[in-house]
Inverse folding.
């Protein structure tokens, strides 16, 4: 089976390079068209209903996000491409959507294509794109949401609703304000990188906490914090100095 694929890219060299990689090394895909501007991309996607779209973020006529806003049906898997660390990369990660940095690496391309094909069977592309658009529209931390893939489907959780994260081998459990526990098959390190700019701190090898959900901190037994759900989380000796400094800055 071949998956209908469209490439949206306004730089001719980047377009030809990606086409060559896809044709030679991603034989599951069939490129059915390319576009170099927002208008043509919208028309092409609406006309052909592709299953996978490689979407350049920045084009001379607008952005890939403009394309997503204007198309009628978003039931395809999008893989963003960008030549630099774009401001929207974090929003893309929160929405569990893939992206590739140019010049595109072959291994990363093949990994993204494999994930795209797997995701197509789960039929959750439109909800991910909707979440991305919402996150891009939100200017403050309060409104940001993160996409969490579980064994039962995908959960969309506002960052402000997360109290803490706990590691369990290759899995991570999210504890939320409504006393819900959500387990995902990603390790804690991935979320440490994603959440570090949003008032979350890895206080221990096994825990990431929402700094806004700390009720109190005590020096007893080496030091620990008590969270808003009454969980007692030990402060790692290696993290104590950084944590105390961070909390002091927040109180200034």
């Amino acid at each position: 089976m071949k998956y209908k694929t469209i490439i949206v890219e306004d730089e001719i060299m980047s377009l030809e390079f990606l086409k060559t990689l896809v044709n030679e090394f991603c034989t599951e895909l069939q490129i059915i068209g390319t576009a170099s501007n927002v208008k043509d991309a919208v028309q092409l996607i609406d006309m052909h209903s592709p299953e996978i779209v490689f979407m350049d973020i920045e084009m001379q006529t607008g952005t890939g996000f403009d394309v997503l806003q204007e198309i009628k049906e978003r039931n395809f898997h999008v893989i963003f491409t960008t030549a630099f660390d774009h401001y929207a990369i974090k929003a893309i990660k929160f929405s569990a959507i893939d992206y590739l940095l140019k010049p595109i690496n072959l291994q990363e391309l093949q990994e993204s294509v494999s994930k795209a094909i797997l995701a197509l069977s789960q039929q959750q592309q439109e909800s991910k794109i909707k979440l991305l658009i919402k996150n891009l529209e939100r200017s403050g931390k309060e409104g940001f949401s993160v996409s969490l893939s579980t064994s039962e489907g995908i959960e969309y959780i506002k960052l402000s609703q997360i109290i803490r994260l706990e590691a369990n081998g290759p899995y991570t459990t999210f504890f939320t304000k409504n006393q819900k526990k959500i387990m995902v098959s990603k390790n804690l390190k991935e979320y440490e990188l994603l959440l570090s700019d949003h008032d979350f701190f890895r206080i221990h090898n096994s825990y990431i906490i929402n700094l806004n959900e700390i009720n109190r901190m005590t020096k007893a037994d080496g030091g620990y914090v008590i969270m808003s759900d009454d969980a007692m989380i030990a402060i790692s000796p290696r993290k104590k100095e950084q944590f105390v400094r961070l909390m002091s800055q927040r109180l200034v």
